[in-house]
Amino acid sequence: MCGIIGYIGSRNAIDVAIHGIADLEPRGYEAAGLAYVQEGKFQIEKRLREGLGSQTVHPSEQLRLWLDHGDATSNMCIGHTRWPSHGDNTLNNAHPHVGFIDRIAVVHNGTISNFHVLREELSGKVPLRSQTDTELVVHLVARELEASQISLAEAVRRALVHVEGSYAFLFIDRTQPDMIVAAVMGSPLMVGLGDDEVVIASDASAIVRITKRIVDVDDGEVLVIRASGIEDSSHVERISELDPHDIDCEGYDHYMLKEIMEQPRIVRAAMNYGGRINMKRGMPRLGGFRDFSGALARVEHVVLVACGTAYYAALIGKHYLQKIAGIARVDVMIASEADLSNVRAEGSVLIAISQSGETFDTKGVVDEARSRDIFTMGVVNVAASWIARATNCGVYCGAGRETAVASTKVFVSQLTVLYLIAVRLGRMRRLSRPDGKRLLKNLKALPDILEDLLEDELVETAQWIAQNIIAPSDFVAFIGKGMLYPIAMEGSLKLKEITYIPSEGYASGELKHGSLALLSTTRPTVAIIPSDDTFSDVLTAVMEAARTGSPIIVVVQESQKDMMRQILDEYSTSTFDSFQTMLVIPDVPDYLMPIAAVLPLQLLAYFAALALDREIDKPRQLAKSVTVG
Ligand code: M6R
Fold first, then answer.
1. Quick one: which of 312, 603, 614, 277 has its CA closest to 480?
2. 78 in the same domain as 13
């Protein structure tokens, strides 16, 4: 959960590295550092995150100030941005780390699992200056170099024989400042090839400002990289589809707000602007299905696996697969809890849902599924990521880069893609052409509806509620039912992730089984009201909550608004002594209600975090991709 960058070429490598660190910062933003060589000596600069909320000064900003006020230049530099896995957030623990013979420096993304064994082995033999796993590896490399006259690449190869875990390393040698040695196992790394310059990074976002020609480094590779490219390389290049504009905030104060507002377009993008819809046949066109139609038509058991927000998308995906595709057996597993022992290879498909495509827990389940010969499919946003490459087939979300740690637009794109997959699987089974057409027509109409939803009135109401009701509270309950229960959990996750206000998402019927005891006048309840016949069940829970004095906020469709207002007014004059208000969303068909309902919840979380002056895009203790177990 860190980011690494290296550059060799004619530009000022330090400047490139600092830009890269800033672009990679969502991967970890507690500390950053860089190393370059000047007159044969290492120069190392490290900074820690300082301040809170809007006063936060990120490590990349501090490095930028240092560079702008000095005259440091170099044609080669490595940099790192840190989410601490081993050791506290201190300058000593920040990367780069230097080996004991003071010749090699390293930056690392990943975790070394036999860290304790290595530490014991090296203790007392070399000076250990940090608490990190990374430092141990640079000492191992230094030991190999000290022992025999070998190249840095060979020393790295020999040292890595003793290393277990996941890593992407960039090593530099102060005696050869025209070369970076990269080594990879289970952590993403790519090399951007420019015109007599290279930029190496753990994410394409740090590369595309310089070049879109990218080579992915595979597990087990140790590469020697110079300005002219990768030595002895037979790698296949790809052109990154990442648009450099995606990396910018485009006038918004925060990426999260930009990404919320982008969602109508994101739904269109998930349909490939119509390219994924064959309306005549009532059938989604999904390239990933092309070579596997036979196997997928026979699927009897689907296992959906994911973490966090993607897990909530999976829970809704289960409803789609059962009700639209008519697949009776659908299991949803939290990746870190997944148990495939009852999944037969024959007739099963495992669908891994992941924005980043590199989440450690989800990767682990895909790996296990492969070893059990279970057919795997990826629903992934980041192209060419580990899960995208490791699965038998897949459907990309196409949402572009999501920068804010709190996932918003990709959740909506995951739901859109799962809906398309369900219609496609349904059409390969018993879903009729007219039903397929109707479902696709509904989806095609959704982006315009979402545009209306994000009109000023709802945004303003959400902001008012967030500032006045949510931000001052010390607990918030979200309730929903059926497909809207995962939306309640997602609304709650968004809120706690960026405001740090304790919160839970409940199935509305569960409230009275214990959690109702938590509610009070300072603890609001946000209820998502379904438009189907479960309406009255959720209403019953709303009344239970209101009797505690809990301020009530209901998310309700336009056509139910008057009835809802009447009910709330009636009860407010008699039974309730609490505040009640509504967030009105346009009418949408039931299957699409989860997408429409999540938007106001995202806005509540965003505006509450804004009112509390939180670090919205980079909340404390979190990182965008969770690449550790
Ligand atoms: O990259 P992934 O979709 O696999 O990430 C899964 C979760 O870590 C992620 O959704 C996380 O819960 C988000 N920060 C929630 O906003």
1. 312
2. yes
pLDDT digit string (tens) for 577-594? 667 889 999 999 999 999
Residue among 258, 318, 409, 624 flagged as catalytic: 624
Task: Count Cα atoms within 13 angstroms, Cβ side, for 383.
Answer: 14
Mutate to test the pocket of ligand 1, among 1, 351, 355, 614 (most ligand atoms within 8 A of CB): 355
Residue 307: predicted pLDDT: 98
Q: Is the pLDDT of residue 369 over 90?
A: yes
Do 383 and 415 lie in a common domain? yes
The reported pLDDT for the residue numbered 575 is 62
What pLDDT shows up at residue 253? 94
Alpha carbon nearest to ligand 1 atom 16, residue: 406
pLDDT band for position 48 (50/70/90)? very high
Q: Which residues constitute the domain of residue 504?
A: 456-611
Indicate the pTM of the whole model: 0.92
- Residue 129 neighbours by CB distance under 10 Å: 13
Residue 574 scores a pLDDT above 60:
no
- Measured between alpha carbons, how far is 190 from 392 in angstroms, rounded to an integer? 22
The dihedral sign for the CA sequence 462, 464, 467, 469: negative
* Cα 114 from Cα 169, distance rounded (Å): 16
Residues 61, 167 within the same domain:
yes
List the alpha helices (DSSP H) in 55-114. 59-68
Instruction: Say how many domains are in the chain.
Output: 3
CATH at residue 469: 3.40.50.10490
Give the separation between CA 339 and CA 251, rounded to whole angstroms. Answer: 45
